[in-house]
Amino acid sequence: MAALIDGKAVSASVRAEIAREAAILRDKGMIPKLAVILVGDDPASAVYVRNKHKACIEVGIEPLQITLPAETPEDELLSLIDKLNSDTSVNGILVQLPLPKHISAQKVIDRIAPDKDVDAFTHDSVGRIVEGRYGFLPCTPAGIMKLLEYYNVTISGKNCVVIGRSNIVGKPMALLLLNASGTVTVCHSKTVDLPSVTRRADILVAAVGIPRFVKSDMVKPGAVVIDVGINRLPDGKLCGDVDFDAVSEIASMITPVPGGVGPMTITMLMQNTITAAKRAIER
Q1: Per residue in 43-69, is it b (16+ CB within 10 Å) or e — as a string?
Q2: What distance in Å separates the CA atoms of residue 242 and residue 211, rounded to the nearest whole number?
């Protein structure tokens, strides 16, 4: 039976350290501040923003929540970001996705100053990740790396397979594993004979958004399985992209859903905000 990778416990440990760092910054006269922009009234986005607000309060970061109507013109949103870029009291800027269809998400993201891009989504941040010269780490992949580090999982020299190639998780996850000297394969909907590829993985990361997609016959015995998916079933229960019960009998370690990767994502956002505040003091 696989050992559980407890994201809640690791998140609590990391947040305690973040809170200590925030207190030190405050003693130096720096109040870390994170601006979160929500455009429209998407229910899921509103929940995510509330959770980020709550996390800020918990660790000693000042939250600045800005909510705009769905019909807000793109130029108005860009002007707001320009204002926040020039506001020295703001250390991090995050625009909650998705945005209304009339607004270009990439144009908006790339308007954020690189030194305030705590989501690590701008072209500048992505380029630094490719080069291994990190500015900020993308939150979900960084959270996964923190989990692997906490549980002493060796990455160097291991076969790592990432299922999913999104810009938010799949691609940056592959790059972080590669930068840690893993041998990385990225799989997607066009991958031929997917199970034959995933069965070679010592570390398997599932980020496809399909409930219980990864079955036990897709997993190498003894593999470390990281489940990024959060899917709501018709009965209202949450499940991941991995068939947890079956795969637990095969893997050596596995993240549960909920309580695995999820708690780490916002925690790493808090860490990026503290990093931004530290750099602001040094400038």
Answers
A1: eebeebbeebbebbebbbbbbbeeeee
A2: 7
Helix axes 7-27, 43-59, angle to 10 degrees: 60
Sign of CA dihedral 145, 148, 152, 153: negative
Catalytic status, residue 65: no
Contact 273, 118 (CB under 8 A): yes
pLDDT of residue 195: 98
CA distance 274 to 261: 21
Say what the pTM is.
Answer: 0.95
Tokens matching residue 238:
């949450």
Residue 282 is predicted with a pLDDT of: 82
Catalytic residue among 33, 115, 116, 119: 119
Q: How many CB atoms lie within 10 A of CB 219?
A: 26
At 272, list the tokens: 């990026």
For the question of residue 52 being annotated catalytic, the response is yes
Report the half-sphere exposure of 237 (CA within 13 A, side-chain side). 6
Catalytic residue check, 271: no
Are 280 and 91 in contact, with CB atoms under 8 Å apart? yes
In eight-state DSSP terms, residue 75 is: H
